[in-house]
Amino acid sequence: MMSHPWKRSLLALCLFSVILLGCILYWRWFREGESIVDTFQKETYSIKTGAFFSDGDVPVLSELDREMSKISSFASQSLVTISATGSSDVGYRSNNEDGRIGSHIVSRAQGSGVIVSKEGHIITNYHVIRGKSYIQAILGDGEVTTARVIGVDQLLDIAVLKIDLQKDLQPIPFGNSDEVKTGQIVMALGTPYGWAKTVTQGIVSGRDRKFNSVGINYIQTDATIHQGNSGGPLINIYGEMIGINSSILSGRISSGGTLGFAIPSNIVLQAFKQICEHGRPMRGYLGIDFVESSQGLKNFIHYQDKDGAIINSIRYNSPAEKAGLQIGDVILECNGNKIEEAKELLRELESLQGGDTIRFVVWRQGRKLSAKITLDDTTKELELNNDSILVRNGITARDLSLVERTSGVKGIVIEEVKAMSNEHKNLESELKAGDFIFSVDGQEINSVKELDNKLKKAPVVIFFVRNNRMFRLKLQLDNTVQGTSSKNTGKNYF
Fold first, then answer.
1. Which stretch of DSSP H or E encloses residue 301?
2. Is the dihedral of CA 252, 253, 254, 258 positive or negative?
3. Rounded CA separation 106/281 (Å)
4. Domain 177-278 top-level CATH class
5. 112 is a catalytic site residue
6. N or C: which end of the chain has fewer CB within 10 A?
7. Phi, psi for residue 78 in degrees, rounded to 5
8. Which CATH superfamily is domain 74-91+102-162 in?
9. Residue tagged active-site, from 153, 157, 208, 399
10. What number of other Cβ atoms are within 10 A of residue 196's Cβ?
């Protein structure tokens, strides 16, 4: 504490100096700002107008500019905005005397679509209208009309809608996606974030891209695709649709960038015809998944040839399993055609429908075997699985793929657990998607069929892994066709 008068004076002087300096600086800046306004005078200027280059100077670019504009203007006539609305129940107990449970929320979705017929058929992605009961199509001229669903292909993520208007429509022509080449110029049309008639330009970045379990060989493009582009067309320089924009991968793949993927037009056209002619997809169901060969996989199955498509997984109760195909088999021929790699086999199977017969020549442990398989309809897949106790009780499981087996593990993987009734609530909380079951009643298990057979003598004790933790579960499922009850007793953590 300052006790001397001179110290207090010094302190006051310092404070005064700081305040004075602040006032000076403020006055200077303020006055300088004022002086700018006060001294403003009109300025003379000259700017250059007109093009620096003429069409003759840049003939190729000028022609490209005109043609790209012409192409996008033509294709935009077929573009529509899809607006879909639906409601879902939300269960809660009210305070009303009747004690009724329930309310609902309204959900809305917006995407793109493209007119493909003069009769008013529109193709979009199934996920755009999934769960929606009221769908509208907004045409390029702003007219709004109701669209009804003709049919869907959930596996391919395709929906066919139809509008009924007494006016001339401009359908987009289908291109041949088999002729698409990496590097060719393309444009993506759609309604991202509600901005209608948005056109982005790029190139085909890659073909035969497979990034999910659907089995589609997607077209990859660097044309910018955002939310709302789903269902819009990917077109070439001839104004033909070569794909339906469906998916994007962002951030995770490239910093700040996106990768766009389109369903090839040949696949879309086939699905469209089947839906219009039969009301549903008629694609053949085989029940296998292939993997591109690698030296590691070849060494694992002791196969040293370069040709063939390796079976990575087989669905339980599928035609492939019933025909005796096994994981690790190498398909060398399909209907007499030599198979050099997996994508060739996929092209062979794409055009097949339920009821068609295929003939395989496969390599297995040094021997060549023949297999004759009749394909089922995809819509019968669930019916085929009704023989499974797991499926009837709301559980979907799969065998380990070949790639997974190369790590030396054994067992099966739970894909989905769906409660079919209130009795299943305990089951849904115990088993979860991604759980890895490796033992039943103290014995190793290597297939879904093994587990299904053991469940006929329920209850069983299963051991499974979740997030690197081991669990023990005593499980009993109803093995009757009509049964929907389950009983789950006890769980121990290891």
1. helix 295-301
2. negative
3. 30
4. mainly beta
5. no
6. N
7. -95, -10
8. Trypsin-like serine proteases (2.40.10.10)
9. 157
10. 18
Q: Is 230 a catalytic residue?
A: yes
215-267 pLDDT per residue, tens: 578 899 888 888 788 889 999 989 899 999 987 765 444 444 567 889 999 98
Q: What is d(CA 350, CA 343) in angstroms, rounded to the nearest whole number?
A: 10
Cα 139 from Cα 79, distance rounded (Å)? 7
- CA dist 192 and 32 (Å) reads 48
Residue 119 — pLDDT band, cuts 50, 70, 90? very high
* Separation CA 184–CA 220 (nearest Å): 11
- The tokens of 415 are what? 């894909």
- 83, 230, 313, 388: the catalytic one is 230
Q: What is the mean pLDDT of the chain?
A: 78
Q: Respond yes or no: is residue 89 known to be catalytic.
A: no
Q: Is 312 left (phi over 0), alpha (psi -120 to 50) or beta?
A: alpha
Q: What's the CATH class of domain 284-381?
A: mainly beta
- Give the C-alpha separation, 307 to 323, whole Å: 22
Return the DSSP state at 449: H
**Cis upstream peptide for 233 (omega within 30°):** no
Cα–Cα distances (Å) from 192 to 69, 109, 286, 432, 458, in that order, read 19, 12, 37, 35, 53
DSSP 283: B
Give dist(CA 414, CA 429) in Å, integer. 13
* DSSP secondary structure of 336-368: TEE--SHHHHHHHHHT-BTT-EEEEEEEETTEE
Upper half-sphere CA count for residue 457 (Cβ side, 13 Å) = 7
Q: Is the domain covering 388-493 a CATH 2.30.42.10 domain? A: yes
- pLDDT band at 118; cut points 50, 70, 90: very high
Give the C-alpha separation, 300 to 312, whole Å: 12
End-to-end CA distance of the chain: 67
The residues near 81 (Cβ < 8 Å, ≥ 6 apart) are 110, 111, 112, 113, 137, 138, 191, 194, 196
Q: For residue range 286-333, list pLDDT tens digits in order.
A: 888 877 677 788 888 888 888 888 888 888 778 888 899 998 899 999
Most confident of 25-29, 68-72, 295-299, 356-360: 356-360
Choose the catalytic residue: 62, 87, 117, 127: 127
Strands 460-466 and 469-477 turn out to be: antiparallel
Burial (CB count within 10 angstroms: exposed 0-12, middle 13-18, buried 19+), residue 127: middle
User: Which of 186, 220, 181, 178 minimizes the C-alpha distance to 203?
Assistant: 186
> Residue 163: its pLDDT value, please?
93
Q: Do domains 74-91+102-162 and 284-381 have the same CATH topology?
A: no
pLDDT at 95 over 90: no
Q: Are 315 and 388 in contact (CB under 8 A)?
A: no
Based on C-alpha coordinates, what's the Rg of the chain? 32
